[in-house]
Design a protein that fits this description.
This protein is of the alpha/beta class. Helix content is about 35%, strand content about 15%. Bound molecules: ligand FNR.
Length: about 190
């Protein structure tokens, strides 16, 4: 099927923090979208901790999350790095996603990025995120890799991404994700 309607991207931040750099990175992405794309950023705060015993009946926030992913043309995940890995919040969401009868990440174009206050800019977390998403059958955009180290230096106090260089990397990622999505859907 040829992609004719706008590409709807679902943005997922792996951080629940109000002033999260990763949520701010998604907000910057919303300002840099290529033509014919939309970005909806969702919050993972309502997802309960994964428990097989809770699958029946399925908690409403879990059904909501799976539906959001299923309906999106593509997903953009911004991951923090916690102790060299992804956040529990993000892994929890991916675990809930994986257990759906029709797993919504399977065959889904996904791009990943991340911001951290450390010098590696979520490099270690992104390797692990890519591994988990590949296990789920997601089609993870290979490149470019957007890693934002020392996030406190490129976001201002309002959460705006002020580095033009980083904005350029982000814009390139979005263009490549749109192209990747069209290729997958064609
Ligand atoms: C961190 N942080 C961090 N940073 C990093 O670059 N590598 C790491 O391994 C860790 N580990 C880590 C563990 C825990 C428990 C916390 C709370 C923090 C710092 C982290 O990058 C920083 O808190 C970011 O601001 C988190 O992302 P958000 O919440 O701003 O999106």
């Amino acid at each position: 099927m040829t992609q004719v309607s706008p590409i709807h991207i679902l943005g997922i931040s792996g951080s629940l923090r109000d002033a999260s750099y990763n949520t701010s990175l998604l907000l910057a992405a919303a300002e840099l979208l290529p033509p014919e794309t939309t970005l909806e950023i969702i919050d993972l705060a309502d997802l309960p901790m994964f428990d097989v015993d809770m699958e029946k009946p399925l908690p409403e926030p879990v059904a909501w999350f799976r539906e959001k992913v299923a309906r999106a043309d593509a997903v953009l995940i911004s991951t923090p790095e916690y102790n060299s890995s992804i956040s529990g919040v993000l892994k929890n969401a991916l675990d809930w996603g994986s257990r759906a009868p029709e797993p919504p990440f399977y065959g889904k174009p996904v791009a990943i990025m991340g911001a951290s206050t450390g010098i590696f800019g979520t490099a270690r977390a992104q390797v692990q995120l890519r591994q988990v998403l590949t296990h789920l059958g997601a089609l993870v955009l290979p490149k470019p890799e957007v890693m934002v180290p020392k996030a406190q230096e490129v976001f201002d106090e309002t959460g705006r991404l002020t580095s033009e260089t980083t904005r350029g990397f982000l814009q390139d990622l979005l263009i490549k994700l749109a192209d990747w999505t069209k290729r997958v859907n064609n």
